[in-house]
Amino acid sequence: MKITRIATYGLELPFKEGAYRCRNRTETGQTNTMVAISTDAGLTGWGEIAPLGAFYSEAFAGGVRAGVAVLAPELLGADPREINKLNRIMDAAMFGQMDARTPIDIALWDLFGQACELPLAECLGGRDGEDVALYRSISQDTPDVMLETARRHLDDGYRRLQVKVGEDPLLDAERLERVASLAGPDVVLYCDANGAWTSHDALRFLDATRSIDYVLEQPCARYGENLIVRRACSKPMVLDESCDSLDALIRIRNDGAADGVTIKMSRFGGITRSRLARDLAVDAGLKVTVECVGGAQIISAAIAHLCLSTPMALRTHTVDFHNWMSVANGEGFPDVVEGRMAAPRAPGLGVRAMQETFGDPLFVVGEDGS
């Protein structure tokens, strides 16, 4: 089997709720990039990435597309099933830029599963359970608005809520108190600052919320500040933005800097290295969340498969990004039921890309392309 054509598509994904606020920034949607890798065997694999603007991480839509344009020609004629080999080819062609590799790597895994006639969960370690718990984010707003957002998510069946904090610690404490009073003891609460606090602010928040049961997520941007908070924190603590490489994950484990980590596919260049990071975290006894930075059905399928192949005892939850969006890019994804998400059972990612709705490719490499 050989790669004969790589096409890149773009799509605007407006948020259903109109706006999403974290790190004191507001976005009304995402710009995604989708890659379709076709072969001489008649199979096509799809991958997706949708950065959250340009403020959240180094990834942004224009950079992703420029990177794919550099990487795609390097893969023509190669066997897509040799995924580790193709990752080494991408390593040699481009330093870093894991976001640009992400949709390519996911598309290669989609092809691998199709070629094996197996769903990806079975290819990535085996499906442990039928579904995974989901969280829903409550973006920064007034306490009253955040309370109503929490009520809506609870009414929709979600039992895990991520309260976005990272502004004034006493205002954030009020936000959490309001949500916690509504949620009750059966709902799992995370407080995610996305690295927006100083250690000083994080410690004030901890002091103001000692009576509430929650998990603290990424209080500070700097690793050293997170260690200061960790030493004073009586709550479980998770690192997200700090877990951006295998080296960082090893450091977190060795320093005892967290009880869990969030592995976002776009930071690791797709499924290949995310799977390696997942396995390392599991071996270290860390709780694991697998997700990405956004997108629709294609990325949600990749997330679901990697989540469900993570041992149940050490996986926490994930996110159904496709249900955040008002535009779809795939069909065949199982419905979310009572705040839980299953992975498709068809081979590969198991979703059909709605190519007829994407318009013309942004660019094509191979066959009828350049």
Q: How would you sum up this structure, described in words?
A:
This protein is α/β, with parallel strands linked by helices and 370 residues long. The strands form 5 sheets. The protein has a 7-stranded parallel beta sheet with strand order 7-8-9-10-11-12-13. The chain has a 4-stranded antiparallel beta sheet with strand order 5-4-1-17. The two termini are 21 Å apart. The mean pLDDT is 95.
Set down the secondary structure blueprint.
Blueprint: E1 3-14, E2 20-22, E3 25-27, E4 29-39, E5 44-49, H1 61-75, H2 83-93, H3 98-116, H4 120-123, E6 132-133, E7 136-138, H5 143-155, E8 160-164, H6 169-183, E9 188-192, H7 199-208, E10 215-217, H8 223-232, E11 237-239, H9 246-255, E12 260-264, H10 265-268, H11 271-283, E13 287-291, H12 297-308, E14 330-331, E15 340-341, E16 352-353, E17 363-365
Parallel strand pairs: 7-8, 8-9, 9-10, 10-11, 11-12, 12-13
Antiparallel strand pairs: 1-4, 1-17, 2-3, 4-5, 6-15, 14-16
Helix pairs in contact: 1-2, 1-3, 5-6, 6-7, 9-11
* Assigned CATH class of the largest domain: Alpha Beta
In round numbers, the mean pLDDT is: 95
> What is the fourth-level CATH superfamily of the largest domain?
Enolase-like C-terminal domain
- Architecture of the largest domain, CATH level 2? Alpha-Beta Barrel
Strand content: 15-25%
Structural class: alpha/beta
